[in-house]
Structure formats: C-alpha cells, structure tokens
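Page 42, continued from yesterday. The earlier attempt failed because a stray header line got pasted into the input along with the sequence. Redoing it now with the clean sequence only.
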Amino acid sequence: MLSVNSYTKEYVDASRARIALQLAAYDALVAAARTGAAGEAAVAAFEPQFFANMVLVLDNLFLHRARGLEGKDSNPLNEVRILCGSLSNNDGVMTAEKAIKMKPAQTVLKIEFGDAIAISRDDFARLSDAFFTDVESRYP
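This time it went through. Structure tokens are written below.
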C-alpha cells in the first residue's frame, strides 16, 4: 500500500471512538474485577499488557502514514512508532530508532531508552489523545 498523506475526519473520528470504546470496556472490567487483593493483583498484572497491545492497535489504525509528514521531532507519532518497535522487537524495552531523533524528556510518556515499557490506563489515554491531535494536524 502507498503511504497515506491524509485521513478523513470521519476516519479519525471513528478511530477515536474505537479507542474510547476500548477504554470504556477496560474501565468496566476493572471496576468489576477490583474486589479484594486478588482482584487488585489481577488488574495490576493485566493493565500494562493490555495497554501495550492498545499502543499496537493505535499505530495499526494509521499504519501507512507518510513518514515524511510524521517528522522526527519526538512527537506522539514518533513515540508510538518507537514504542511499537520496542514492544514487538525488543522484549518491551524502550529502544532508540536511528531514523528518529527522539528525546524521551520531550515525549508524552517520557520513557527513557533502556527502560522496560509499562503503560498504565492514564498513560495510554494521554498518549492516544496526543497521537490523534498530531494525526489531525499533520495529515489533514
């Protein structure tokens, strides 16, 4: 597939809604599961795994975005791209990508290179909001 230079408002809105449904489903599951110490432990173990996978979903919704429009400036699109590579190819350890000059201190999650990636619900909500905002501004 050719790279994508723009996304329709309808597609971006539908993608946002899809992510919002996943967050709502997660919230409902967590509310039901948090009954005692065993429930809390189960949620604590499930949360980073679920949201690591949600980062992969988020990226996949815009998989063919043109890299030239994405830029290389530590923006949320770069952050998601590097997170996905690190989750898929580096055992969940944040790893730099030569083509992107990312500075962790300037990213949404501020995960340093060499750190294990553990994404909470609130982390993912912030990241996905920033990601969609960037998609809308860079791929009108």
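Notes: Helices lie at 9-33, 36-61, 67-70, 76-89, 121-138.
Reminder to self: strip header lines before submitting.
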